[in-house]
Amino acid sequence: MHEWIARHVWRSRAESAPDKWRRLSFLLEVDGDVAGSQDLKASDFPQLRIVESASWLGERFRGTGLGKAMRAMVLHFAFQALDATAAETESEEHNDAALGVTRSLGYQPCGDRYAQRVDRIDHMLWSRLTRERWALLRNGYGLDEVGISGAERCLPMLGLGETR
Q: Structurally, how many domains does the chain consist of?
């Protein structure tokens, strides 16, 4: 595993609390290599039930459908295991690949902002997918049946109690 990924995951775990998840990370492994990661984060999730997703996909895995599959699986986890009411994401205005994944999964535009970077200012586009829209569209994602096991063990760390 890349050292920076391990640091990112452990730092995120250390900085998370039940009322604010810095990052709940899911890693994608292909033939023993870390191909990417899909993260969920949230503030006041037990009350708001809204998650935000973020992802990274290694360059050689881009354009293969893995980015969409990763996002679809983490959405399934958010809506099924965590009972989220909505998922949000943001992408740089010029990141056509990320925006394509977002649109293909049924997200709808919901706002924008400008983000200051070291060497530039980026126009960021926000999108939202509601639980109801996900339920209508998820069978068209082109994935086999997705199952979840063991999620109940992490619910207390996410402020959700012992059982759902």
A: 1
